[in-house]
Every structure is written in C-alpha cells, then in structure tokens.
Amino acid sequence: MVLYFCCRDKRWLKDKPPKSGCQSPVLGAMIDNLEISMIPALVLLPLLLRVAALHYLLGITILTTLPGLVLWYYYATHRRKRRTLFFLTLALYSLAYMYYLFMTEILPRGDVSQLQVCTVTTGMILTIGSLIQTKRGPGVVTASLLEARSQSQDKDSTHVNGAIQSAASSSAGSAAELQTTEATLTTKWSRCPVCKIMRPPRAGHCRTCGSCVQRLDHHCIWINSCVGQANHRSFLLTLSVFVLTSLYGIKLVLCSLCPRQYLMTALLYCPGVYSQSSTALCFTCAWYSGIVTGGLLYLLVVQVLNISFNVTEREAQLALRNKTGQSRLWGLVIDTGEYSRGFYQNWVEFLTMTDASVSPRSSLTDLV
Fold first, then answer.
1. Which residues form the Palmitoyltransferase DHHC domain (predicted)?
2. Tens of pLDDT along 39-71?
3. How many domains does the chain divide into?
4. Domain range enclosing 57
5. Residue 249 included in any domain
6. How does pLDDT run across 275-315, given as a tens digit for each residue?
7. Which of 45, 109, 67, 121 is closest to 273 using CA atoms?
8. Nearest-CA neighbor of 198 among 137, 138, 142, 154?
9. DSSP H helical ranges for the chain
10. Across the strands, what pairs with 212?
C-alpha cells in the first residue's frame, strides 16, 4: 500500500494532474503550469522587505540588489523553459502583498478616507480585469486566416473595380486614389520560414511562443504572452491603470507616514519613519513599489511613443539592426516612416484595429 502511494505521488509530480469534469479552464491552466520553484521566491520577497525595513542602509542595499537577485534566481531555475509564469506570478504576488499592507497598516491609521480606499480598490480590480483581457491572446496567425482574407479581398476587389469605373468618368484623382486602395488591399502576404504558413504584413514569429502573431509588438515576460493586434490595446490599458493606481497608492502611503513632508521629498527624507517596524515596512514597500512603477512607466512611455509613430517594438528593433530607421526623442522611439500617417491617424488605426482571425474587415487598418 505504501509503495502504491509513493508511485502515485511520483506520477503526480512528473505528469499533469488528471482533468476533472467540474474543473474550470482557468484553474486547470494554473495547475498545469504550476511552477514549484516559484515558492522560495514568494517566501523570500516579504522576508527581504522586512529585513530592509530594519535600517535605511539595509533598505538601500537590498532594494538595489533585489532586481539582480530575482534575475539570478530566474536564470538558475528557469533557464531551460521557453515560457514561464515566473514574472507574472511575482508581479501579481507583489501587487497583492502591497494591497494587503495598505489595508492592514495604512488604513487603520485613519489618514485615508473611504473614497480613497475605493479608488485604490477599483484600480486593483481594473488592473486584474484588463490583465485577464490581455491574456486572452495576441491574435495568432492560423492557416485559415489567409482563406478568410481572400474571400473578403474578392468582395473588396469587385467593389473597388466598380468604384474605379464609375469614378473614371468624373475624376481622375478619385480613380487614382481607389487604385491605390486596391493595391494596398492586394498586398501579398509572406511565408514564415518556421511555421510554414502565410502571414499578413507586420506579423512576426515569436521564438518564445513558437507561433506567428498578427502585428507582433513584442513578447512580454511579465504577462507570459505576446503583445499583438488582438491584445495590444488591453495591454496598454493594463499598464496605464497599474501605473496610475500605483502612483496614487504611493502618494497615500507617503502622506500618511510623512504628513509634514512635501510629497516629492518624502521618499528621500521622512524623519521618524524607522521608529516603528510597521511604518518602516510601509516606507520600504513604497520604495519597492516606486522602483517597479518606474520601470513600467518607462515601458508605458515607449509604448505611447511607438503608437504615435505607428511602429511596433519588433519593427523598431529590425530598423535598428538594418539601420533603416531614425532615432527620435533621445532614442525613446525609432521612426521607420513606413506606416506612419500622422499622429491622429496613427492613434485612430490603433484604437480601431481588430483581430483579423476573428472578424475580417475590408479596411486599411487590417494591414496594421
């Protein structure tokens, strides 16, 4: 009997757990992708933050070395994995831990109103909701996508040809414009050398995911997914809501811990904050949140600039490699000049684009 349970335990550790009929897809995906090696990191994070709260010199030392420790642990335990939930789990755990400290340490001090608590909670819920929407998929290129596009293109060609014939008698300029539209709609797709399937313009192959993605921007390790045509807007929304919520939460924490200090100088000088362990921990976590928020704020700025110039991160990297793009705004964005139609039109295309595999459209935004 003991031997039976030992073999069964080994089989459970090596293989995936059996699927249950009442098990939800989300729970099943979490169990299938469970990474036991994440447990030490999740245990050490609050421990390191509490050690950093003992003295400001310890705080400076631990917070400056923490990113290096995280990367070292990641490469030591996840080096052979192409896709991993390491950074997503760490980000969600950090977010939940910061919210827990806010509710248990800052709220009882009486310096935060119910409206401010509701604002922070709403920001948390919106961040999780937009993250779930982002995780639904970036818009993977499938073999059936070309067939659906061809059917839509045939209808568009018939419509455009009829419009050109009717416009030829009235205006040569309108005919030329419609011919340009037809040429754009009939742009040839390229074959992926890895997937061996036809893919639309601006699509790219992700080596991490092993598939082609429509309008591939980049593979984000923080969400363990690609950012493409289908989830780019929700990804931008997730970044925006998280940064705004985090900055607002840091402001509330500093105003509660350092009411006599200016907000801009409270992170650098807050007298008496290390007199109590609870206030020192909250102050240290405010620093930790500030470091994470600073990194994501930089990513948000780069994303906004790329959208304004109608260029993806993948296209910017290719332009740098091939020396075909121009560096703008102190190197924050690479302008390829290939798809840009002006600030307003670039944002209109970004906000109105849809996943072609779900809803094929006869519009120029399909090529974006």
1. 190-316
2. 888 888 999 999 999 999 999 999 999 989 988
3. 1
4. 37-139+224-304
5. yes
6. 999 999 999 999 999 999 999 999 999 999 999 999 999 99
7. 109
8. 142
9. 2-14, 25-32, 38-52, 56-78, 86-101, 114-134, 143-168, 172-185, 232-257, 263-266, 277-308, 313-322, 343-352
10. 205
